[in-house]
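[agent] plan:
  1. take the single chain provided in the ticket
  2. run structure prediction with default settings
  3. attach structure tokens to the ticket
  4. add a short note for the reviewer (M.T.)
[agent] executing step 1
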Amino acid sequence: MIPTPAQPTRHYGIGAVNYHTGETVVLLKRHKRRREIAELLQALVDKHPAGTIYVAWDNANTHEDDEVEVVVRAAAGRLVLLYLPTYSPWLNPIEMLWRHFRREVTHCELFPTVKALLAAAREFFDRYNQAPYRVLSIIGSHAQIVT
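[agent] step 2 finished; step 3 output follows
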């Protein structure tokens, strides 16, 4: 009998980027279901307790559910969901950041453990949140950072 590796342990990055400030909110989760999408929206509402939050996203089936609707309703009109056309990742700024993440962190890399991969992912987003002007450059925003 030939030994084979176990089922892969998957983790997903679920995130959002502020097009004006370059700040990111990224959750690293074992699943990418409706519950995790609702957690991301709640994290955005918690991070921005005042004002309107606009979320541009695709039409994935995980974006439409009662759990997501509960968060949207609880935000009392402060959370506005903008649905992008199907198959148009170039319109979603976070997709450009994911591409940069893959190029810098995971491309041609073999991590000894999933824990090491997750640590590298967290370090990437922590580092870029310290330098939001770099994120703005990656996503093509021409917003000015006010210091």
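[agent] step 4 note for reviewer: The mean pLDDT is 88.
[agent] ticket updated
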